[in-house]
Amino acid sequence: MHPIQPHRPTRSTLRSLAPAVLLALAAQAQAQDPTAITINGQRVFQITAQTTFELDGTPISAATAATLGPGFSTLVLATNVPDGANQGQAQQVQFDNLARGPVTATDPLSVLNQPLTLTADTVLEGFTDPTTLVVGDLLEVSGYLDADSGVISASRVVLLTNPTQDWKLVGQVSQATANGFAIGAQAVDSTGVTPTECPLGVIDGVYVELEALPNPAYTAASVLDQLIELHCEDPNFGNPPPGTVTASLEGLISALPDPLPDPPSFSLLGVTVQATAQTEYRGGGIDDLDVGVRVEAEGSFDSSTQILTAHEIRFTQAQARFMAPLDSADITPDEGVTIMGNLVAFTPQTRDEDGLAANGLSQMTQVEVRAFVDSDGSLYASRIRERGNPDLTDTRLQGPVAEIAEPVLTILGNSVDTSAAQFRDHEDNLITAMEFYALLQVGMVVSAEDALYDPVTASLIPARIHLEDAPAPQNRAGKGVGQG
Fold first, then answer.
1. pLDDT tens profile 321-345
2. Options 1.10.3210, 2.40.50, 2.30.30, 1.10.10; CATH of 318-391
3. How is residue 130 annotated by DSSP?
4. Phi, psi of 434 (to 5 degrees)
5. Most buried among 282, 355, 378, 428, by the most CB within 10 A?
6. pLDDT tens-digit series, residues 128-148
7. In Å, how far from its chain's centre is CA 155?
8. In a 3-state reduction of DSSP, which class is residue 4?
9. Is the pTM here over 0.85, yes or no?
10. Burial letters for 260-288: b for 16+ Cβ neighbours within 10 Å, e otherwise?
Protein backbone atom coordinates (compact mmCIF):
# COMPACT_ATOMS: atom_id res chain seq x y z
CA MET A 1 0.00 0.00 0.00
CA HIS A 2 1.63 3.19 -1.01
CA PRO A 3 -0.49 6.24 -0.73
CA ILE A 4 0.02 8.07 2.47
CA GLN A 5 2.54 6.40 4.65
CA PRO A 6 0.36 8.20 6.24
CA HIS A 7 5.03 0.84 23.50
CA ARG A 8 5.88 0.45 25.56
CA PRO A 9 7.92 1.34 28.56
CA THR A 10 11.08 -0.64 28.82
CA ARG A 11 11.81 -2.75 31.84
CA SER A 12 10.65 -0.59 34.65
CA THR A 13 12.17 0.08 38.03
CA LEU A 14 9.20 2.15 39.12
CA ARG A 15 8.73 2.32 42.84
CA SER A 16 5.81 3.21 45.07
CA LEU A 17 5.80 6.91 45.72
CA ALA A 18 3.49 9.36 47.46
CA PRO A 19 -0.26 8.75 47.77
CA ALA A 20 -1.08 10.76 44.64
CA VAL A 21 0.39 8.96 41.64
CA LEU A 22 -0.09 9.12 37.88
CA LEU A 23 0.91 6.57 35.29
CA ALA A 24 0.69 8.05 31.81
CA LEU A 25 1.58 6.33 28.58
CA ALA A 26 1.11 8.67 25.66
CA ALA A 27 2.73 9.91 22.52
CA GLN A 28 3.59 13.49 21.61
CA ALA A 29 5.44 13.95 24.88
CA GLN A 30 7.45 17.16 24.77
CA ALA A 31 10.33 17.84 27.12
CA GLN A 32 12.06 20.78 25.43
CA ASP A 33 10.84 23.01 28.27
CA PRO A 34 13.35 22.17 31.02
CA THR A 35 10.72 22.89 33.69
CA ALA A 36 7.90 20.63 32.46
CA ILE A 37 6.93 17.72 30.25
CA THR A 38 3.68 17.93 28.28
CA ILE A 39 1.67 14.87 27.24
CA ASN A 40 -0.62 15.29 24.23
CA GLY A 41 -0.78 19.04 24.73
CA GLN A 42 -3.03 18.80 27.77
CA ARG A 43 -1.24 17.04 30.63
CA VAL A 44 1.61 19.08 32.08
CA PHE A 45 3.96 17.67 34.70
CA GLN A 46 6.55 19.79 36.44
CA ILE A 47 10.18 18.70 36.34
CA THR A 48 12.18 19.12 39.54
CA ALA A 49 15.76 18.46 40.58
CA GLN A 50 14.60 15.02 41.75
CA THR A 51 13.06 13.97 38.41
CA THR A 52 14.90 11.07 36.76
CA PHE A 53 14.92 10.24 33.05
CA GLU A 54 15.50 7.15 30.92
CA LEU A 55 15.78 6.66 27.16
CA ASP A 56 15.19 3.05 26.12
CA GLY A 57 16.08 1.90 29.60
CA THR A 58 19.31 3.90 29.90
CA PRO A 59 19.48 6.76 32.42
CA ILE A 60 19.95 10.19 30.84
CA SER A 61 20.33 13.68 32.25
CA ALA A 62 17.61 16.31 32.35
CA ALA A 63 19.67 18.35 29.89
CA THR A 64 19.73 15.45 27.43
CA ALA A 65 16.00 14.85 27.90
CA ALA A 66 15.30 18.48 27.04
CA THR A 67 16.96 17.99 23.63
CA LEU A 68 15.04 14.89 22.57
CA GLY A 69 12.12 16.61 20.90
CA PRO A 70 8.43 15.62 20.78
CA GLY A 71 6.65 12.47 19.71
CA PHE A 72 8.00 9.82 22.06
CA SER A 73 5.87 7.15 23.63
CA THR A 74 6.43 8.08 27.24
CA LEU A 75 5.80 6.72 30.71
CA VAL A 76 5.49 9.31 33.48
CA LEU A 77 5.28 8.54 37.17
CA ALA A 78 4.22 11.61 39.13
CA THR A 79 3.04 12.80 42.52
CA ASN A 80 0.51 15.45 43.54
CA VAL A 81 -1.77 14.40 40.71
CA PRO A 82 -5.42 15.55 40.80
CA ASP A 83 -8.31 13.33 39.81
CA GLY A 84 -8.29 14.64 36.24
CA ALA A 85 -4.68 13.42 35.79
CA ASN A 86 -3.73 16.61 33.99
CA GLN A 87 -0.87 17.86 36.15
CA GLY A 88 1.56 16.93 38.90
CA GLN A 89 5.25 16.65 39.71
CA ALA A 90 7.16 14.18 37.54
CA GLN A 91 9.25 11.70 39.50
CA GLN A 92 10.29 9.38 36.68
CA VAL A 93 10.07 9.86 32.91
CA GLN A 94 10.79 7.06 30.43
CA PHE A 95 11.10 7.73 26.69
CA ASP A 96 10.82 4.60 24.55
CA ASN A 97 11.26 3.38 20.99
CA LEU A 98 9.63 0.29 19.49
CA ALA A 99 12.08 -0.29 16.66
CA ARG A 100 15.55 0.73 15.57
CA GLY A 101 17.03 -0.73 12.43
CA PRO A 102 17.05 -0.71 8.63
CA VAL A 103 14.16 0.00 6.29
CA THR A 104 13.12 -3.34 4.79
CA ALA A 105 10.38 -2.04 2.46
CA THR A 106 8.99 1.27 1.28
CA ASP A 107 5.50 0.12 0.24
CA PRO A 108 4.38 0.05 2.98
CA LEU A 109 7.25 1.66 4.85
CA SER A 110 8.68 -1.03 7.13
CA VAL A 111 11.53 -1.35 9.62
CA LEU A 112 12.85 -4.82 10.47
CA ASN A 113 9.81 -6.13 8.58
CA GLN A 114 7.38 -4.22 10.82
CA PRO A 115 4.97 -2.09 8.71
CA LEU A 116 4.50 1.51 9.85
CA THR A 117 1.53 3.86 9.65
CA LEU A 118 2.50 7.53 9.38
CA THR A 119 0.14 10.51 9.41
CA ALA A 120 0.47 14.27 9.75
CA ASP A 121 0.60 13.67 13.51
CA THR A 122 3.82 11.64 13.22
CA VAL A 123 6.89 13.65 14.21
CA LEU A 124 9.60 13.28 11.55
CA GLU A 125 13.23 14.04 12.33
CA GLY A 126 16.06 14.04 9.79
CA PHE A 127 13.66 13.96 6.83
CA THR A 128 10.35 15.51 5.78
CA ASP A 129 9.05 13.20 3.04
CA PRO A 130 8.68 9.46 3.74
CA THR A 131 8.71 8.73 0.00
CA THR A 132 12.41 9.72 -0.11
CA LEU A 133 13.39 6.86 2.19
CA VAL A 134 15.05 3.81 0.64
CA VAL A 135 15.66 0.23 1.71
CA GLY A 136 18.63 0.15 4.06
CA ASP A 137 18.08 3.57 5.64
CA LEU A 138 18.34 3.38 9.43
CA LEU A 139 15.23 4.51 11.31
CA GLU A 140 14.26 4.79 14.96
CA VAL A 141 10.53 4.49 15.63
CA SER A 142 8.41 5.34 18.65
CA GLY A 143 4.67 4.81 18.78
CA TYR A 144 1.97 2.22 19.40
CA LEU A 145 1.84 -1.47 18.62
CA ASP A 146 -1.25 -2.74 16.84
CA ALA A 147 -1.37 -6.29 18.18
CA ASP A 148 -4.08 -7.34 15.72
CA SER A 149 -2.26 -6.35 12.52
CA GLY A 150 1.35 -6.31 13.73
CA VAL A 151 1.71 -2.72 12.53
CA ILE A 152 3.43 0.10 14.41
CA SER A 153 1.36 3.28 14.48
CA ALA A 154 4.29 5.68 14.50
CA SER A 155 4.26 8.78 16.69
CA ARG A 156 7.92 9.62 15.97
CA VAL A 157 10.33 8.49 13.25
CA VAL A 158 13.98 9.54 13.16
CA LEU A 159 16.35 9.01 10.22
CA LEU A 160 19.69 8.01 11.71
CA THR A 161 22.67 9.26 9.73
CA ASN A 162 25.31 7.37 11.73
CA PRO A 163 25.52 3.61 12.40
CA THR A 164 24.05 2.50 15.72
CA GLN A 165 25.62 0.18 18.26
CA ASP A 166 22.55 -2.03 18.27
CA TRP A 167 19.24 -2.70 16.59
CA LYS A 168 16.08 -2.93 18.64
CA LEU A 169 12.63 -4.46 18.23
CA VAL A 170 9.63 -4.73 20.54
CA GLY A 171 6.66 -6.92 19.70
CA GLN A 172 4.52 -9.97 20.29
CA VAL A 173 6.02 -13.43 19.92
CA SER A 174 4.63 -15.97 17.45
CA GLN A 175 5.93 -19.26 16.00
CA ALA A 176 8.08 -19.82 19.09
CA THR A 177 10.56 -22.73 19.06
CA ALA A 178 13.45 -23.74 21.30
CA ASN A 179 15.86 -21.54 19.35
CA GLY A 180 13.79 -18.78 17.87
CA PHE A 181 10.49 -17.06 17.17
CA ALA A 182 8.92 -14.40 14.99
CA ILE A 183 7.81 -10.82 15.59
CA GLY A 184 5.40 -10.12 12.79
CA ALA A 185 7.15 -11.08 9.55
CA GLN A 186 10.62 -10.91 11.13
CA ALA A 187 12.16 -14.29 11.98
CA VAL A 188 14.47 -14.21 15.01
CA ASP A 189 17.23 -16.64 16.02
CA SER A 190 17.67 -16.47 19.79
CA THR A 191 20.56 -18.94 19.97
CA GLY A 192 23.19 -17.84 22.47
CA VAL A 193 21.12 -15.35 24.45
CA THR A 194 19.42 -16.09 27.76
CA PRO A 195 15.94 -14.54 28.05
CA THR A 196 15.24 -12.61 31.24
CA GLU A 197 12.02 -11.67 33.03
CA CYS A 198 10.17 -14.47 31.21
CA PRO A 199 8.59 -16.66 33.92
CA LEU A 200 6.69 -18.69 31.31
CA GLY A 201 9.52 -18.63 28.80
CA VAL A 202 9.51 -17.03 25.36
CA ILE A 203 6.19 -18.44 24.17
CA ASP A 204 3.56 -17.36 21.68
CA GLY A 205 1.63 -14.31 22.84
CA VAL A 206 4.19 -12.76 25.19
CA TYR A 207 5.75 -9.39 24.46
CA VAL A 208 9.51 -9.13 24.21
CA GLU A 209 12.18 -6.54 23.63
CA LEU A 210 15.32 -7.61 21.84
CA GLU A 211 18.57 -5.93 20.97
CA ALA A 212 20.87 -7.27 18.27
CA LEU A 213 24.23 -6.38 16.79
CA PRO A 214 23.94 -4.60 13.43
CA ASN A 215 24.44 -6.94 10.48
CA PRO A 216 25.77 -5.31 7.27
CA ALA A 217 24.57 -8.32 5.25
CA TYR A 218 21.00 -8.16 6.59
CA THR A 219 18.10 -8.03 4.12
CA ALA A 220 14.34 -8.29 4.47
CA ALA A 221 14.68 -12.04 3.93
CA SER A 222 17.27 -12.47 6.70
CA VAL A 223 16.79 -14.05 10.08
CA LEU A 224 17.57 -11.51 12.79
CA ASP A 225 20.36 -13.03 14.86
CA GLN A 226 23.36 -11.99 16.97
CA LEU A 227 21.04 -11.03 19.82
CA ILE A 228 22.75 -9.37 22.76
CA GLU A 229 19.65 -8.96 24.95
CA LEU A 230 16.19 -10.51 25.11
CA HIS A 231 13.60 -9.97 27.81
CA CYS A 232 9.87 -10.23 28.27
CA GLU A 233 7.91 -7.23 29.42
CA ASP A 234 4.60 -5.64 30.19
CA PRO A 235 3.82 -3.54 27.10
CA ASN A 236 1.94 -0.95 29.14
CA PHE A 237 2.80 0.19 32.65
CA GLY A 238 5.79 -2.00 33.43
CA ASN A 239 5.96 -2.48 37.19
CA PRO A 240 3.42 0.00 38.63
CA PRO A 241 3.11 0.94 42.29
CA PRO A 242 0.82 -1.37 44.26
CA GLY A 243 -2.80 -0.54 44.94
CA THR A 244 -4.99 1.86 43.00
CA VAL A 245 -3.49 4.91 41.32
CA THR A 246 -4.72 7.67 39.06
CA ALA A 247 -3.70 6.71 35.54
CA SER A 248 -3.88 7.72 31.91
CA LEU A 249 -3.14 5.08 29.28
CA GLU A 250 -3.03 5.65 25.54
CA GLY A 251 -2.82 2.94 22.91
CA LEU A 252 -4.56 0.95 20.21
CA ILE A 253 -7.48 -1.25 21.22
CA SER A 254 -6.20 -4.83 21.00
CA ALA A 255 -9.40 -6.72 21.82
CA LEU A 256 -13.02 -6.13 22.78
CA PRO A 257 -15.86 -8.53 23.58
CA ASP A 258 -18.46 -9.48 20.98
CA PRO A 259 -21.14 -8.49 21.69
CA LEU A 260 -19.86 -5.38 23.41
CA PRO A 261 -21.28 -5.15 26.95
CA ASP A 262 -22.95 -2.06 28.34
CA PRO A 263 -21.01 -0.33 29.85
CA PRO A 264 -18.25 -1.42 27.48
CA SER A 265 -14.87 -2.92 28.26
CA PHE A 266 -11.86 -3.50 26.03
CA SER A 267 -8.16 -4.29 26.15
CA LEU A 268 -5.14 -2.10 25.55
CA LEU A 269 -2.64 -4.95 25.22
CA GLY A 270 -2.38 -6.28 28.79
CA VAL A 271 -4.66 -3.76 30.51
CA THR A 272 -8.45 -4.07 30.66
CA VAL A 273 -10.27 -0.75 30.39
CA GLN A 274 -13.67 -0.85 32.08
CA ALA A 275 -16.14 1.95 31.39
CA THR A 276 -19.02 2.81 33.70
CA ALA A 277 -22.35 4.55 33.23
CA GLN A 278 -20.58 7.79 34.19
CA THR A 279 -17.69 7.48 31.70
CA GLU A 280 -17.50 10.41 29.29
CA TYR A 281 -16.39 10.03 25.65
CA ARG A 282 -14.60 12.62 23.54
CA GLY A 283 -13.86 12.61 19.82
CA GLY A 284 -16.22 9.67 19.27
CA GLY A 285 -18.73 7.42 20.99
CA ILE A 286 -19.20 3.86 22.21
CA ASP A 287 -20.00 2.68 18.67
CA ASP A 288 -16.55 3.84 17.56
CA LEU A 289 -14.72 1.46 19.89
CA ASP A 290 -13.06 -1.08 17.61
CA VAL A 291 -9.88 -3.11 17.35
CA GLY A 292 -7.01 -0.89 16.19
CA VAL A 293 -8.66 2.39 17.21
CA ARG A 294 -6.40 4.69 19.24
CA VAL A 295 -7.81 5.91 22.53
CA GLU A 296 -6.64 7.45 25.78
CA ALA A 297 -8.34 6.13 28.92
CA GLU A 298 -8.09 8.17 32.12
CA GLY A 299 -9.23 6.89 35.48
CA SER A 300 -8.18 4.60 38.34
CA PHE A 301 -5.77 1.73 37.72
CA ASP A 302 -5.66 -1.32 40.00
CA SER A 303 -2.27 -2.97 39.61
CA SER A 304 -3.46 -6.24 41.15
CA THR A 305 -6.25 -6.79 38.61
CA GLN A 306 -4.71 -4.84 35.70
CA ILE A 307 -8.06 -3.04 35.31
CA LEU A 308 -8.32 0.67 34.55
CA THR A 309 -11.76 1.99 35.50
CA ALA A 310 -12.24 4.87 33.09
CA HIS A 311 -13.66 8.26 34.01
CA GLU A 312 -13.01 9.45 30.45
CA ILE A 313 -12.24 7.77 27.13
CA ARG A 314 -10.83 10.09 24.51
CA PHE A 315 -10.38 9.17 20.88
CA THR A 316 -7.03 10.80 20.20
CA GLN A 317 -7.96 11.11 16.52
CA ALA A 318 -11.52 12.21 15.73
CA GLN A 319 -13.59 9.29 14.47
CA ALA A 320 -15.35 9.47 11.11
CA ARG A 321 -17.82 7.07 9.56
CA PHE A 322 -19.42 6.87 6.13
CA MET A 323 -22.07 4.60 4.65
CA ALA A 324 -23.19 5.17 1.07
CA PRO A 325 -23.37 3.48 -2.35
CA LEU A 326 -20.01 3.11 -4.13
CA ASP A 327 -19.09 2.06 -7.66
CA SER A 328 -15.96 0.30 -8.85
CA ALA A 329 -14.30 3.62 -9.76
CA ASP A 330 -14.57 4.82 -6.15
CA ILE A 331 -11.99 2.36 -4.79
CA THR A 332 -8.36 2.19 -5.85
CA PRO A 333 -7.05 -1.08 -4.43
CA ASP A 334 -4.22 -0.73 -1.90
CA GLU A 335 -4.50 3.06 -2.05
CA GLY A 336 -7.82 4.52 -0.96
CA VAL A 337 -11.54 5.04 -1.34
CA THR A 338 -13.56 8.13 -2.27
CA ILE A 339 -16.84 8.23 -0.37
CA MET A 340 -19.25 11.15 0.10
CA GLY A 341 -16.68 13.39 -1.58
CA ASN A 342 -13.88 12.44 0.81
CA LEU A 343 -10.65 10.62 -0.03
CA VAL A 344 -9.90 8.06 2.66
CA ALA A 345 -6.46 6.44 2.50
CA PHE A 346 -5.81 2.78 3.20
CA THR A 347 -2.94 1.95 5.56
CA PRO A 348 -1.33 -1.32 6.69
CA GLN A 349 -3.75 -1.18 9.65
CA THR A 350 -6.95 -1.02 7.56
CA ARG A 351 -9.16 -3.98 8.41
CA ASP A 352 -10.53 -5.44 5.20
CA GLU A 353 -12.65 -8.53 5.93
CA ASP A 354 -14.47 -8.30 2.60
CA GLY A 355 -11.40 -7.67 0.43
CA LEU A 356 -12.55 -4.24 -0.75
CA ALA A 357 -9.28 -2.45 0.00
CA ALA A 358 -7.32 -5.24 -1.66
CA ASN A 359 -9.51 -5.94 -4.68
CA GLY A 360 -12.01 -3.09 -5.11
CA LEU A 361 -15.62 -3.47 -6.28
CA SER A 362 -17.13 -5.16 -9.32
CA GLN A 363 -20.55 -3.48 -9.03
CA MET A 364 -22.42 -0.74 -7.17
CA THR A 365 -22.52 -1.69 -3.47
CA GLN A 366 -23.44 -0.10 -0.16
CA VAL A 367 -20.14 0.36 1.69
CA GLU A 368 -19.31 1.41 5.24
CA VAL A 369 -15.96 3.03 6.00
CA ARG A 370 -14.67 3.74 9.49
CA ALA A 371 -11.83 6.23 9.59
CA PHE A 372 -9.91 8.69 11.70
CA VAL A 373 -8.95 12.29 11.00
CA ASP A 374 -5.40 13.53 11.55
CA SER A 375 -4.34 17.06 12.46
CA ASP A 376 -4.17 18.07 8.77
CA GLY A 377 -7.71 16.87 8.15
CA SER A 378 -6.59 13.81 6.17
CA LEU A 379 -8.67 10.65 6.54
CA TYR A 380 -7.33 7.13 7.09
CA ALA A 381 -9.49 4.01 6.92
CA SER A 382 -9.51 1.80 9.99
CA ARG A 383 -12.11 -0.60 8.51
CA ILE A 384 -14.07 -1.04 5.28
CA ARG A 385 -17.09 -3.36 4.90
CA GLU A 386 -19.78 -4.30 2.39
CA ARG A 387 -23.30 -3.42 3.59
CA GLY A 388 -25.56 -4.91 0.93
CA ASN A 389 -27.46 -3.32 -1.93
CA PRO A 390 -26.90 0.38 -2.71
CA ASP A 391 -29.42 2.63 -0.97
CA LEU A 392 -29.24 6.44 -0.99
CA THR A 393 -32.08 6.57 1.55
CA ASP A 394 -30.11 4.69 4.22
CA THR A 395 -26.77 6.47 4.53
CA ARG A 396 -24.65 7.71 7.39
CA LEU A 397 -22.04 10.41 7.93
CA GLN A 398 -20.07 11.01 11.10
CA GLY A 399 -17.25 13.46 11.71
CA PRO A 400 -16.21 16.76 13.26
CA VAL A 401 -18.57 19.67 12.66
CA ALA A 402 -16.87 22.37 10.57
CA GLU A 403 -19.71 24.93 10.37
CA ILE A 404 -22.96 25.56 12.25
CA ALA A 405 -25.78 27.48 10.54
CA GLU A 406 -28.85 26.17 12.36
CA PRO A 407 -30.54 23.99 11.18
CA VAL A 408 -27.71 23.11 8.76
CA LEU A 409 -24.35 21.60 9.72
CA THR A 410 -21.27 21.09 7.58
CA ILE A 411 -19.55 17.77 8.25
CA LEU A 412 -16.60 16.59 6.15
CA GLY A 413 -17.60 18.81 3.25
CA ASN A 414 -21.25 17.73 3.24
CA SER A 415 -24.30 19.82 4.12
CA VAL A 416 -26.52 18.19 6.75
CA ASP A 417 -30.06 19.56 7.10
CA THR A 418 -31.28 18.71 10.61
CA SER A 419 -34.75 20.26 10.25
CA ALA A 420 -36.62 16.95 10.41
CA ALA A 421 -34.20 15.04 12.62
CA GLN A 422 -34.58 13.50 16.04
CA PHE A 423 -31.75 14.61 18.33
CA ARG A 424 -29.80 12.63 20.93
CA ASP A 425 -27.00 13.71 23.23
CA HIS A 426 -23.73 11.89 23.96
CA GLU A 427 -25.51 9.69 26.52
CA ASP A 428 -28.16 8.72 23.94
CA ASN A 429 -30.85 10.78 25.67
CA LEU A 430 -33.56 12.25 23.48
CA ILE A 431 -33.18 16.05 23.44
CA THR A 432 -34.73 18.99 21.61
CA ALA A 433 -33.15 20.84 18.72
CA MET A 434 -32.67 23.83 21.02
CA GLU A 435 -30.84 21.69 23.58
CA PHE A 436 -28.71 20.10 20.88
CA TYR A 437 -27.56 23.40 19.40
CA ALA A 438 -26.89 24.80 22.87
CA LEU A 439 -24.44 21.94 23.46
CA LEU A 440 -22.90 21.88 19.99
CA GLN A 441 -19.53 23.48 19.22
CA VAL A 442 -17.41 23.50 16.08
CA GLY A 443 -15.08 20.51 16.17
CA MET A 444 -17.44 18.23 18.07
CA VAL A 445 -18.12 14.86 16.46
CA VAL A 446 -21.71 14.42 15.23
CA SER A 447 -23.32 11.44 13.53
CA ALA A 448 -26.08 11.91 10.92
CA GLU A 449 -27.93 8.60 10.58
CA ASP A 450 -30.68 7.02 8.47
CA ALA A 451 -30.09 9.83 6.00
CA LEU A 452 -31.24 10.58 2.47
CA TYR A 453 -28.04 11.43 0.57
CA ASP A 454 -27.80 13.47 -2.62
CA PRO A 455 -24.31 12.98 -4.11
CA VAL A 456 -24.85 15.75 -6.66
CA THR A 457 -25.39 18.46 -4.04
CA ALA A 458 -23.31 16.71 -1.33
CA SER A 459 -26.21 17.02 1.09
CA LEU A 460 -27.94 14.80 3.62
CA ILE A 461 -31.33 14.86 5.29
CA PRO A 462 -30.98 12.59 8.34
CA ALA A 463 -33.71 11.04 10.46
CA ARG A 464 -31.43 11.07 13.50
CA ILE A 465 -28.64 13.33 14.73
CA HIS A 466 -26.39 12.02 17.49
CA LEU A 467 -23.90 14.16 19.41
CA GLU A 468 -20.97 11.79 19.96
CA ASP A 469 -18.86 14.17 22.07
CA ALA A 470 -19.46 14.95 25.71
CA PRO A 471 -19.58 18.67 26.56
CA ALA A 472 -16.31 20.16 27.82
CA PRO A 473 -15.59 18.83 31.32
CA GLN A 474 -15.55 20.91 34.44
CA ASN A 475 -12.41 20.70 36.55
CA ARG A 476 -12.72 18.01 39.17
CA ALA A 477 -11.50 18.62 42.67
CA GLY A 478 -7.83 17.77 43.01
CA LYS A 479 -7.14 14.71 45.12
CA GLY A 480 -4.78 11.78 45.14
CA VAL A 481 -6.24 8.31 44.78
CA GLY A 482 -3.05 6.27 44.88
CA GLN A 483 -2.29 3.95 47.77
CA GLY A 484 1.14 2.74 48.85
1. 999 999 999 999 999 999 999 999 9
2. 2.40.50
3. G
4. -60, -45
5. 282
6. 999 999 999 999 999 999 988
7. 9
8. coil
9. yes
10. eeeebbbbbbebebbbeeebbbbbbbbbb
